[in-house]
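From the pipeline queue, job 12 of 40. The input is one protein chain; the requested action is below.

Action: predict structure.
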Amino acid sequence: MSDGSATNSRVLAVEGADFLATVAVAAAASVPVWFRVRGTSMTPAIQPNALVRAVGLSARSARRGDVVVARRADGSPVVHRVWWQQGRRLWLKGDARLAPDAPVTVDAVVAIADRVRDERGERPLEGRAAWSPRLALGRWRRHLRGVVTRRQGMVRS
């Protein structure tokens, strides 16, 4: 019986729809699944090539701040944080991204990612985005653009 650790596992190479189906079946059976992340959209919380553990949704649905494994509208998998929820729609966003993804329904979420393992060791994924210099710079740029736009509008009046 597996204890859910990344060291007590078998490797299975699956992608796309097969990946989502594998995670969904394992999550429904309450079996944690570790998978390798390729992209950079979740840095600094999840580094490229880190292992991430996906678990079933249990008695609750995904909520704001959770990192989830979901199916996008085009069928491709995504591992992003729940940024906003309105009714049955969720907006997901990578921690390193400035804007959220297109919304998905709550039914598109197949599992919650609760742990990460990389060169810094194994740790839980926190319920909120980690601070990132790139993200902070992007927010300041948007803020300054808004200030400049408002001032230009005041000058023209």
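Job complete. DSSP finds two helices and eight strands in the chain.
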